[in-house]
Amino acid sequence: MSTAPPLIRGYEVVIGLETHAQLSTQSKIFSGASTSFGAAPNTQACAVDLALPGTLPVMNRAAVERAIRLGLAVGAKIAPLSIFARKNYFYPDLPKGYQISQYEIPVVQGGTVSFLLGEQRKTVRLTRAHLEEDAGKSLHEDYQGQTGIDLNRAGTPLLEIVTEPDMRSAAEAVEYAKALHALVTWLGICDGNMQEGSFRCDANVSVRRPGAPFGTRREIKNLNSFRFMQQAIEFEIHWQIDQIEDGLAIEQATVLFNPDTGETRAMRSKEDAHDYRYFPDPDLPPLVIAPEWIERVRSELPELPEAMAARFQRDDGLPAYDAAMVTQSLPFARYYEAARQACGEPKLVANWLMGELSRRLNTEGREIDASPVPAITLATLIRRIVDGTISNNAARQVFDALWGGESTDVDALIEAKGLKQMNDSGALEKIVDEVVGANPKSVEEYRAGKDKAFNALVGQVMKASRGKANPAQVNELLKKRLG
Question: Are strands 218-223 and 253-258 parallel, antiparallel or unpaired?
């Protein structure tokens, strides 16, 4: 069931995203120079990247294959023939004076990306995804008032993924970006490292009264964290509304976000396509992709997140939300599958992944691959909860010890810390009898229909057993004893 988009101060927000995903090739898109990160400035820029006279670009087949992979994953059309164009502009870090990109006929056309916003499924339409080369980088620090140029990035292969203006809030834009980030890393076409610039987003933001034509958009450039994206879009929304409320017009512009102030500021007036004077690159023939190539790539695709989530719902009985959460990344999904296979408790594994494990990972800024608690160890811990060896509270204590590196042996930790539950019915019956005899008022209140009195008796039994009694067994024995 669709819901009306949220309004902010009576305005509807309209957002489209353009995402540059650096493709995971070993060499650049039109040359054999390395794409590895962190080299000394200008040590990974060859004659082609520097645009020396007489050099010619040669297309990198691996970059095309990664574009095909993305297109198939989002249900797009793969163009059988696409064209490379020259995007002309002059900037110090662009040696040729133009960028090789795709304009009229991109390699990937259409497609969709779906994700959960809260518990509501949203779908964003893609306009296109096209191949292009990256520019170099201008360095403004430590150059005594001058600007240095590092051309190591020049020619790095990018896939620019462009959406329709389908998003209606900063939160929705962030969830789309997270879903796309998860997908490109899942497919192995991009490492997704936002700090190194491998995945960066530009947000086109405008506001309008409900039902009115689209407003004038401003483009926030180079957002390289989801938190900054949220902050930048929210500030831009309120800035545009303030301008309109003050009777001022919004001018199309490219803006930058300053994370220190939390504000956006205009960098330059926004160019339109005609400003770049696109024309087909005479040095590159049309890119022809045969149907056999597409089918081979399709046959090599991994199971995609949505299909895997549907399988977890169908085969494991997970709720839709849980299934979406455990498929948020391929390593996360693999961890879930390994733990679930080892203990046979899908819902409990999902609960631990979404709860305690995610909390620890987020607090310490770790990826799940670096979890100190392997999937098999978590599965053992869950089995000890299920078989009644330990309580949930004791399990959290064991998990803390595992995370802290005290031991990798779940059973040894349970013994060492004295956390094993009391399951001896005879001993428990004796404690229950003693508690019932010592608390006649609570017994009377329970028999008068006050449920809180029963909880108080359970608490007394747990206290008397020093927390070692099995709560389910305590409940059963108390109810039997109280008739």
Answer: parallel
